[in-house]
Specification:
CATH class of the largest domain: Mainly Beta
Number of domains: 2
Helix content: 10-25%
Oligomer: single chain
Number of helices: 4
Largest sheet: 4 strands, antiparallel
Strand content: 35-45%
CATH topology of the largest domain: Methylamine Dehydrogenase, Chain H
Shape: globular
Strand order of the largest sheet: 1-28-27-26
Number of strands: 28
Radius of gyration: 21 Å
CATH superfamily of the largest domain: YVTN repeat-like/Quinoprotein amine dehydrogenase
Length: 407
């Protein structure tokens, strides 16, 4: 597998680490998620909790089974519906790991479901006239869930809560067949794809087409920030090929590029503030896990992680499929000594830097507040902390929250 020089990455890593006011709790490390039978059924991770101590996904096979992995406990299967088949997949998890959502095969067909902390499995229902539904994501508190469901009006994206039940949020005009892939922290922004276009939905604005990059035929939104103001996803051609994008209201869709020597890129997850995205890059035969930040661009995780002290001896990371809200934990798939593995890396420094250390002197104090206020008053784009393309009160609130948290 091609590898890239770590020389510049090491310099940038040192710069990021020096921006910390507080050290990480432990040396960053990679953990094998294990397997059910010693090797052949390797877990595919789709989501992880805020601190990376819980990972959920699917163990592929015939049939695939939903799993959760917990630090200190390991890999275990989640219960399917009684009376249905064992086929199931876990797709989202709350911040504290207590609520897991996904889908499972029931006696009535596939159903969006939740695996609550109390145990068992709960059906989230199906839209009127529909025969199947699939949950793809949940809010950090587990209150809202989003996904897709058949209905009498075709396949629609849905938003669910215990208070409202499953509610269809429609599809784009001229782009039939919609499904949600990600949801904002408050549940008021849902993103995904409808037909061949990425969409962003809000209760007041309905479905909005996010467009497509020049030269590409279709788009799919796969992730959004905590605020829902920044959307990430991928554009596609008819044949093999993809290109990761970042979208904001002010700038529209922006190409995130590829590392040198690679042809295609995809993004699957993003940190809460949108400063770190993870995914993969691939060519005609090889595939690498990647991370994107505004400072680094798109880079190979196999080259970057060792600069933070992660021992990747024997590992090849092929795809990063999810990232924690603070960006300090990443999960994905790859291989170790040639054997396919699921993995999680925890204890990372923030790849996006410490935004509360606004003057980059290694401390979080009043000087940073003064520096931010000066940039804010001048309308400097450096003060656009939530990366929505505007410098406004939302950025001031974001800075105050990070300042109070110490980073």
């Amino acid at each position: 597998m091609p590898r890239h020089s770590t020389r510049n990455l090491g310099v940038l890593a040192c710069a990021f680490v020096s921006a910390f006011s507080r050290p990480t709790v432990a040396q960053p490390s990679i953990t094998d998620l294990g397997s059910l039978d010693g090797g052949s059924n390797v877990p595919l991770a789709y989501a992880l909790s805020a601190d990376g101590s819980t990972v959920v996904g699917q163990v592929p096979g015939v049939p695939g089974r939903a799993f959760r992995w917990d630090e200190g406990v390991g890999l275990r299967l989640l219960d399917p519906f009684e009376g249905g088949g064992p086929q199931a997949s876990a797709r989202g998890v709350s911040s504290d790991g207590s609520a897991v959502v996904g889908w499972s095969y029931s006696a009535d067909g596939f159903r969006a479901c939740a695996w609550p902390a109390s145990g068992g499995i709960q059906s989230l229902g199906v839209l009127g006239g529909g025969s199947s539904s699939f949950a793809e994501c949940t809010t950090p508190d587990g209150v809202y869930v989003a996904g897709s469901s058949d209905s009498s009006e075709g396949r629609q994206a849905f938003r669910w809560s215990a208070a409202t039940g499953m509610q269809g949020i429609g599809e784009l005009v001229g782009q039939p067949g919609a499904g949600a892939r990600a949801i904002s922290a408050d549940g008021m922004v849902v993103v995904g794809s409808s037909g061949a276009r990425a969409f962003c939905w809000t209760p007041g604005g309905g479905m909005n087409d996010l467009g497509v990059l020049d030269g590409w035929l279709g788009s799919r939104a796969t992730a959004t920030t905590e605020s829902g103001e920044v959307v990430f996803g991928n554009c596609y051609m008819l044949g093999p090929g993809a290109r990761a994008f970042r979208w904001t209201q002010s700038r529209g869709m922006e190409d995130l590029g590829v590392p040198a020597g690679w042809q295609h890129s995809e993004v699957f997850g993003v940190s809460a503030d949108g400063r770190i995205a993870v995914g993969d890059c691939y060519g005609s035969s090889d595939e690498i896990a990647v991370v994107w930040t505004p400072e680094l661009g798109m880079v190979d995780l196999n080259a970057l992680l060792p600069t933070f002290g992660v021992d990747l001896t024997g590992w090849v990371l092929n795809a990063a499929t999810a990232i924690s809200t603070d960006g300090r934990a990443i999960t994905g798939r790859g291989s170790h000594d040639g054997i396919e593995k699921g993995w999680v890396v925890r204890g990372l420094p923030s790849l996006g830097g410490c935004s509360a250390d606004f003057n980059h002197d290694g401390f979080v104090n009043g000087d940073d507040y003064d520096a931010f206020a000066e940039a804010f008053d001048a309308g400097n784009q450096e003060a656009d902390l939530n990366r929505d393309g505007f410098v406004n009160g939302n950025d001031y609130d974001a800075f105050a929250d990070r300042f109070d948290a110490g980073c």
